[in-house]
Amino acid sequence: MIKSKLEQVGIFNDNLNKVKPSPIHSFDEKVSDIPNILKLTIGEPDFSVPQHIKDAALAAISADDSHYSVSAGKKTLRQAASDFLNDRYGLDYDPAEEIITTVGATEGLYTLLAAILNPDDKILIPTPAYPVYAEMTRINGGHPVFIDVSEDKFVLTPDHLREIIATEDHIKAIIITNPSNPTGVTYTAEQLKDLADVVRETNILIISDEIYSELSYDAPHVSMASILPEQTIVINGVSKSHAMTGYRIGILAGPAALMKKINMVHGFVIMTPSNPAMAAATEAFKSAESKDDTLWMKEQYKKRRDYLVEKMTKLGFEMATPSGAFYMFAKIPVDLNQNDVEFAYDLVDRQQLAVVPGSGFGPGGAGYVRISYAASLDMLETAMNRLESYCEEKRTVKIL
Fold this sequence. Notes:
The protein is an alpha/beta fold and 400 residues long.
């Protein structure tokens, strides 16, 4: 292994000293090589990409579509994304000036934060939340401000938001995840309107992460951009809705003046997205078949959700029934180890079942575990059998 003196002389960005590795991926990597391990850790759809979408990527390759596009992405893709957002959520974006194609939702978020953050700027993050939000904020010189919403059924209330705004300065934006990772909770139109009324009185930007918007089970998805478009930037894409995580195509949509500046950063970061991936995403956004594909996947996820809610409730776990995404955030029963990290590792050791400790998702997550049900029913049945055996073993020991 090569050793370099440079790592000792401050060559790195000081902001990296504030950053922690992803608790989701760190835990997943630690347990992945354990024999017979069954992992319900990563938010990775288990479905194959529909054939007509794969065919679009293959057609682009066969046509030698191998040259630079523009940084915002091909016009055909941006038009398809604009039509998709309009058809599904009633949003009206000019594809030429108000939509950017990103290398997944993650690059979109990074580029957006890099474009808006100055030193000491703050990003409000309702928690439990996807850990990447806080770490990307720190990398870009900002400060995450956590808002624990666990006592409000995992929904940010307008009163709570007003309280934070009154006590914090230099607030640049708030990230609203809808549907939520890790809880699966979704916001109603009324809840979003109440939050919009608070933000409208400020110069705070709303970053609305809607990557799971097509996986809303119990009611149609409502976008924050349909309520406060002038202060909202939407993050969306095809990764979760079309099982295309490896294609790495996301989108940012927002007011033209904001998107122009964001695209400056975006272009320096990635130059252009991949042409075959953009061709596949164009098909995903515009095809009537794709709508049917997503509806079918959503129905399968809903069956899995209902199965897990029933089984885990019987085992003594408490959870807000997920109304979107494909995660369950379950409170560990009081008669079991309340340290979620210890609980998760013990479950791995004794039953070779991996779920993610909830404390990694920030304030309000301790004592919970996140379970991804982007897995087959057969796998979930095996997982629940192992969890049941674990609970029985631990409760028997306590009785003895």
